[in-house]
Amino acid sequence: MNQLVAITVNTFKETIRDRVLAVIVVFALIMIAAGLWLGSISLGEQGRMMTDFGLVAVTGFGLIVAVFVAAGLVRKEVEKRTVYVLFSKPVSRVAFISGKFVGLCATMATVIAGMGLFLFALVWIVSGRPSGMVLLAVLMIYVQLLAIIAVTIFFSTLGSAILASVLGICVFVAGQLSHNVLALTRLGKNPLTEALSWIVYVIIPNLSAVDVKAGAVGEQTLAWGQIGLWVAYLLAYVVVVLALATLIFRRKEF
Amino acid sequence: MQHDTPRSPATDPAVLVSGLHKTVRVGFRARRLEILKGVDFEVRRGDVFGLLGPNGAGKTTSVKVILGLMRPTSGTVAMGVAGLADVGYLPENPYFYDYLSGREFLGFCARLFALETGERRERVEGLLGDVGLLDAGDVHLRKYSKGMLQRIGIAQALVNDPELVLLDEPMTGLDPVGRVEVKRIIESLRDRGKTVLFNSHILSDVHELCSRIAIMREGRVVWQGTVPEALAESPTLEDFFMKVVTA
């Protein structure tokens, strides 16, 4: 437990002190604020445009941070040989992978909370009332990004940081579409393509199931019980992916 | 790493390496490269043991196998200490987390050994003092010179007050003052009854510090014994070393 806490705190310090992260966050806040202008040129839909644009910005910049930071977390330790210092001490590979994940999750929580609260405040100013749905939508973006962080860490135990980043982004995009692909193949009534899309559907996390952006702008009524189940599914998915990453990392020599 | 059945601590060697082989696959065609070809040596308790050899002889690989950073293809490593909790290690050309200060880094390492907060703080301050970095404790590691990094590296290797200390080229890149400081640290470890195994190319330091040495060549230990035994065969350790590695 001590090892896990130590690695978590160290990873949090490593990522939160990265100047590139600060630049990305500042740029994200500027983009969210740019939603004010976008809202001003839309007729009578200023609040909605603002929320929509802001949530997309939170997702996009959150994804950039999640993927590029997660891809480097494990690789950097190996390439810069700090693993020698860690694994010459009684540090388990489970604690290492878990600590890296939890540490980055803490950083992501800080970053996403900062962006989310900024958007929440702007929407409040523009529409004249606070919108709890904006905060809930931001929370669901965070849950999606947890799965992407886990997947990217998994890929980084297999290959280079660039490959892990690219695959992390691919999984994010596929995760937004996997539900639709399954629905479309069902229409085709071909058992082979349906079976294949089922396999993809199981491997790729279904991120669209917890996407509540449409609910946040009032376009959709949300079934919270079902969303809660999908959140539990994504958290279980994270555990499985991290377990696989640990299995692969245990076989590595330095 | 395999461990033998525990024996009496007084008679147990600190490290016993027997018949160690290590083969790795390199390149696109996964060509087999045998790095260790049957390494045998014994580090006795309380020894300052020098592992010598030209570049590529297999010294660092042997140390990595002892630590479990690499798995042996065959052979055994028996440790006379209570696992990694009782071992300290300084890698060659160490790189540490440059976003941490020296104090934070040592605190992080101490935490990995589950030291209590008070003990952790005391140990960190003591070690910063021992390696002469008390004033630079709050400076980020990216601003440390090579000598300072080497010293903080030694401090992290000692954070758990280990019985066995493995130092890979601890004098490399140090100026004369830094070398003297590192030598003093090794002497103080020896005086406290700790076992030290270090790799080095600097034979004058080996002569000064080591009680026993092993010389490696092309993945094998070709000679081991005490420094006086080596000096009985040649006028200087350098001559003896050249004679052994070129034989």
Give a topology summary.
The complex is a heterodimer of chains A (254) and B (247).
Chain A (H helix, E strand, L loop, with lengths): L1 H15 L2 H22 L5 H34 L2 H6 L5 H35 L4 H25 L4 H28 L2 H13 L9 H4 L7 H27 L4
Chain B lengths: L14 E12 L4 E13 L4 E5 L6 H9 L6 E6 L7 E4 L11 H11 L4 H14 L15 H12 L6 E5 L7 H16 L3 E5 L3 H7 L2 E6 L2 E7 H7 L3 H10 L1
Parallel strand pairs in B: 3-7, 3-8, 5-6, 6-7
Antiparallel strand pairs in B: 1-2, 1-4, 8-9
Helix pairs in contact in B: 2-3
Strand content of chain A: under 5%
Biggest β-sheet of chain A, characterized?
none
Query: Gyration radius of chain B, to the nearest Å?
Result: 18 Å
- The end-to-end distance of chain A, rounded to whole angstroms, is 24 Å
The count of strands of chain B amounts to: 9
List keywords for this structure.
heterodimer; A: 254 residues; mainly alpha; 10 helices; 82% helix; 0% strand; B: 247 residues; alpha/beta; Rossmann fold; 6-stranded mixed beta sheet; 3-stranded antiparallel beta sheet; 8 helices; 9 strands; 35% helix; globular
Describe it:
The complex is a heterodimer of chains A (254) and B (247). Chain A is 82% helix and 0% strand. Chain A has one domain. The mean pLDDT of chain A is 90. Chain A contains ten helices and no strands. Chain B is of the alpha/beta class and 247 residues long. Chain B has a domain of 149 residues: Rossmann fold, CATH 3.40.50.300. The two termini of chain B are 32 Å apart.
Concise structural overview:
With 254 residues, chain A is mostly helical.
